[in-house]
Amino acid sequence: MSMKFMMLRVLLLLTIYFAAFANPELKFKDDRKSLIKWDKLEAKDWLSYESWKEDLRFKESYPLWRDLAKMSGLREEMGRVIKCVGQCTLFRDLGENKVGYRSLIKENDDIETGVDSYLWLMLFDGTLIRMAPESSVSFKEINVLEKEVFFYLRANVGNMLLISRSEEELKMSKKRDTDAVFHPLPINRTNPIVFDKNVSLNEYLFEDDIRYRSRTKFINDLIKKNNKKVMRKSRFFIQSPLFSFEAYSPSFETYVSIGNDSYLKFRDEEQLGYSYKNETNPKVNLRGYANEEFEQLSKGTWYRFSFINRNYFIVEPNDVLLQNELMTKRINGIYYTREIFLERYGQVLFEKLDEVGYARAYGMRLWEEGELDNRIKFLWKHSRQIETTNLAIADRYRKQVLARVGRRDKDVLRKDFYTKAQESYYRAGAMENSRSYFPELNSEKLDLWKKLNGINTKIYPGIRESSQKGTSILDESTN
Q1: C-alpha Rg value of the chain to the nearest Å
Q2: Domain map of the chain by residue range?
């Protein structure tokens, strides 16, 4: 009797063990017990006997249907907004809302910027993306592997700049940031303010560039700290109407139009000021249903992709291209914010967990290399065929429809992309350098007195006469 009782006890323990550990159900963060999407459920389908039989047939033939349903409904987190200037709108499912500092970006989100609106955001690997006015970007996918992370984006229209994170330290800068339209930045210490305790009073009072040199030091300290945590390479698949490309750690700027030519430039080491150890040459594919060829484009060169003949040409940069590039020539404040964001929100890519660990901790699925290779093969073909069809439709119908209502496509290269940013840059320079002073007393001529009273620049006699003596005024004179 005792022997039979012991056998039953062993069988019961084995049953409990295998039920709990043999094939554990994959649980994702914030999982709901019910997989029914009530907000999208139609009453007709819910009450249909045929639909129920079809679902039951699938579930009986595929034992892992529950895991598949969970993974297909995942909206994995991709990044955070650093700052929006103006009006920036995020579209998710059928809803829309305004975004700003620290707004979360998930898979399948679309972001659009309004007139005179700009946006900087960071993906969780430290990649920076800048959107100019009247631009749109779709954030399609993020796929995490053991040794790399994959991002799939689509540039829909407008101007977009993407800068991958480098592990190199920044060069010491003595000049102010050029993207002043975002100033002041939301994190106070990323603005050019002196924090270094080793700065002497004499340096603080008489060296105008100490603010920028001190800030570069703090940025580099944070870069070195974050480098110890980074363990995955970044891989990108970028899609647009006239081209697609795939590469590790690319940095590029593009101008995209729905019914016109597009422009693309991969920034080189000279323009960026640093290099990437994991960077690869991008593989570029043009449009055409059967076009499986890849083009190799050089860095530091602007390319124009023709809407008419589906080809590309090297072009010399015009005033629009040059002026807009100037706006992102020095962005140390954005780099500083990026490193702070990476420390706060990049934890998902710093950890080495198994499939179950990632699902439970971050609600993300861990991919295998073979799966990603198959996914990228599909994207090459799918994006080429879809975009080729879209181009054919746009070429045949778009201009006719716009003509009927008296409208036309905007020029793909236009001053609207940088006008407000340029004004902010010049205004910031004027505020910093144009405070003139005409001394009345001998004591007021001393550099120390000027510093203590906020007089930052020297005045050269003979430029113009002042109507006010011994006061600070704005110098609005021009050469």
Answers
A1: 28
A2: 44-73, 78-389, 434-479
